[in-house]
Amino acid sequence: MNARTTAPPLTALLLLSAIVAGGPAVRDLPPSEAGFEPYLRFTPSSMAGRVDWLLVTTAELAPAFEPLVRHRRDLGLVCEVVTVEEVTRDALLGGGDFPERLRNFVRYLSGSHGLRYLLLGADSELLPARLAPFPIRGENVHYGEPYAVEGYFGCLDGEWNADADARIGEAEPGDDDRPDLAARVHVGRVPAEDVREVEAFVSKVLLYERPMHLEYLDRAVFLGGKVFIEGDADQHYRELFAKHFEPAGFRADFFTVEGGPTEVIRALSEGAGIVSHYHHSFTYNLSLPNGAIDTGNVGEIANAERPCLFFSNGCYSNQFTKEGISEKMLLSPAGGAAAFVGSTNTCFTTSLGLERRFWDHLFTGSARTLGEALSAMRAEVTTGVGPLGFLRLSFALLGDPATPPWLARPVRVELSVTAGKDGALTVRRKGAAPGRVIAACVQEGPYGAFRETIPFPEGAEEVVFPPVVGNGAPLRVTLSGDRV
C-alpha cells in the first residue's frame, strides 16, 4: 500500500457499523466478552506464545486501560499487560534498578516472543524512566543534567553503560557508553498518575483511531516563529507542507509569522489532525509568534472529539519527568493531543532534520505507526555523540507507539455479511472508492488465527468465502484498505 494514504485498518466483529459510525467514548464501549484480567495472571518470566504489544502499568491503573487493550486486540495484535509490581518482584529479571529489570524483560520478550510495541502506562514517579547525563558542553546548556531516554527500553543490543560506572547512557567523545539506537521495540509512554488521566488519554486515542469526525483529519496546523534567523520556522514548514502534506490533500494553517494563543487555541479547538511546532519552548510552554501556549491555557483547547498528533522541535517540550506542557496536552480531558513527540531536553536546529525524516518515513517510507516512524528517524543517524546523536536519544513519544496516523482524510465503509445455507459467507462493502478496500479476512473467534483472506477484485463490491468448517467459535470479519 502507498504509505501516503495508508491509515488504520477498519476492523469489524459484525459490530463494524457501530465502530465506523460512532467512535464511542470509553464509557460507551461494550464489555469485553472474555473479561479483562490485567494482572496477577502470570509472572513476566512465565509468558508463553507470541506477544506483539505490551502494556506495563500499575495494578491501580491497569483496569482503566481495558478499552485500549481490547481495541489493539481488535486490530489483530496479541496483547499482554504486566504491572510494575510484577516486574519488581519477578526474581528471574535480574538485579539492578527498575529500568534495568524492565529492559531485561523487554529484551526477553523481543527475542523469544516477537514483541514490537511497548507502552509504559504510568508517570515516571510510578514507572521510573532511564535518566542519562546531558552530553553537550557550552553556554546556555546544562551539561550533566539528567534527561529521560525512553529508547533505553527499546534499543536492546548496545551496552548503554560500557564503562560500568554510575552514569548510564553517556554519549560524548571520550566518554561514550555506546548506547544502542537501533530499536527492536517501539516505545511510548502515558505519564498518568491516576485513573482519570488514563481515561482521558484512552478516550482520545480511540476517538483519533476510530474518528467520529472525518473532516479535520486532513488539516494541519504549523506553529513557530523566529528561532535563529527571520522566517526560519515559516520556511521549514512551507517546504514540509509542499513535500508531503499538500500532495496528500491536506489543508494547512500557518501560525509561523503572526498569531498568539487566542488564535492558535481557536484553530486547535476547531480540529487539526496534525500539529507541528518549531520555536523556543521550555517544560511548561510552547512559544508562538506572539505569546505562548502554556500549562495555564492548554486546558482551553476544546478538541476532545478531534484530538491531534503533535510534534514539537522545542527545547524541553517533552520533559515528561515534570508536569509540563506535553503531559498536559496528552492528559487534558478537554482536548489536546492523542500523541506528542518531542525532546526531553535541549533542541538544536538539527532537530528539523530529524522531523523531516520522521514525516519522510510516514508519508513515503515503510513506517506505519508513530513508534515505527520515531525509531526509523533515530536509526538514520549513525553516531550517538554530538548534537544530532544526542537528539536521537532525547526525542520521545508520549502516546501509544502502535497508533497509525491518518495521512489523508479517511472514508467510511459499510459492511454486511450474509451466510448461505452451505456455510459460504458473502461479504459486501459499500462507501469506499474503488481500490480503497483491499481485502476481507475471516478469523475464528475474537483473537483466533485468520482462516482466509480474499482481495476485492477491482471495482467489485463483494467477495464470497467458501464454506467454513470450524469449531463453533464465532467468526470475525475484518476489512483493510487505504484510508478506510
- Total helices: the number is 11
Percent helix range: 10-25%
**Strand content bin:** 15-25%
**Would you identify the regions where 5 or more consecutive residues have pLDDT less than 50?**
1-43
The overall strand count is 23
Overall geometry comes to globular
**Rg for CA atoms:** 22 Å
Mean pLDDT: 80
Provide the spatial order of strands within the biggest beta sheet: 10-9-11-15-16-17
Structural class based on helices, strands and sheet pairing? alpha/beta
What composes the largest sheet? 6 strands, mixed
Give the N-terminus to C-terminus distance in angstroms. 12 Å
Give a description of the structure.
With 484 residues, the protein is α/β, with parallel strands linked by helices. The protein has helices at 16-22, 66-74, 84-89, 98-113, 195-209, 232-245, 261-270, 325-331, 350-363, 370-379, 386-394; strands at 53-57, 79-83, 117-121, 131-133, 146-148, 171-172, 175-176, 186-189, 219-224, 251-255, 274-278, 281-282, 285-287, 292-294, 308-312, 337-343, 395-398, 414-419, 425-430, 437-444, 450-455, 462-465, 475-481. Mean pLDDT is 80; it is low at 1-43.
